[in-house]
Amino acid sequence: MDLLRGRGRRPGKARTWAPRGHTPVTRVSGNTGRLSVAGMARLKPGRPGRFFYRVHVHRRRKGDRASMSEADYAALVTAAHRALNAPVVLVWDNLNTHRSKKMRRFTEANSDWLTVVHLPAYAPDLNAVEGAWSSMKSSLGNHAATTLGELEALVRSRLRSIQRRPELINALLGQTGLSLEPPPT
What we know:
This protein has helices at residues 70-84, 101-109, 130-139, 148-163, 166-174; strands spanning 2-8, 34-42, 50-58, 88-92, 114-118.
């Protein structure tokens, strides 16, 4: 599972076409919020990949949390467990929320079906879900959402398209160089 570090309405930089000397400029007003996205890829030998995600909208209101909470992550993991009806081995990066006391209590309370493995300190190349974020972000390159709701709809659309491509989800593991099969002895 991984967290997309957030996405504001400011459009991403991507290549585009324009007549020479007429660089296209997109004006975006204000900084009215951002999105956070958490995702999980279910990878199992011989089975099609599955992708689960949650999108959280932050409207920058006073007192609101500016990122996903432990409860948001716990809800995603629990929903994936229910959908899969199987134990979950969760490979997590070292985001502070993933290592918090609240999250530790959640994982200990659900240790009958949940096993957590933490990646090394900085290892995005070992995180299979990074490929999903890369795919989603590259498809947003030349889109400039005018509202936070429009951005949310666009992100959800891109994530649903990833969900509908089990071969892409399975390929996420291949990009890490890791394998689900134990090494031969």
